[in-house]
Amino acid sequence: MQGKEFWYGLEVEGRLLGVQTVFVRSKIPEDFNKYPHIYFTIEYTHTCVDNDDWQDIENILDNSRQICSIEVNEHTVDKIPMYIFNHSHLIYRINTDEKIAKLKASDTVSLDDAPYRVFQSTKHQLLSVTPDSYKYDKL
Questions:
Q1: Distances (CA, A) of 135 to 12, 43, 53
Q2: 128 DSSP assignment
Q3: Which of 21, 84, 102, 104 has the most CB atoms in a 10 Å sphere around its CB?
Q4: Domains of the chain: total
Q5: pTM for the full model?
Q6: What is the pLDDT of residues 40-59, one digit of tens each?
């Protein structure tokens, strides 16, 4: 939800698919503890990195049973404090061109991590999320 500090909805991506979630872009809502899953967007992560302030996430991890997912990218993943790294669900965002959509379901997507070290999956095993997946989100 562009321009919103936070919003609510079902998680539609990854291993927590279907879990009631509060998505946090710039402000943690007062009722965050009503949701089993808190998703910190890349914007929130950048703010934590820029300010070197992870206290809010640490407090949630220390004082609740909530699952925290944190979006990271190539600029932030190495700057996550070890405690948060070990106790959160990280979602590493990689931007691609739109050509993966053109592949057949049986084709392979390969992420080259280093020489002779790759991660691969067939396209049909990847979770496909489209704009329609977010239609039930609410403010």
A1: 10, 21, 33
A2: P
A3: 21
A4: 1
A5: 0.85
A6: 999 999 999 999 999 999 99
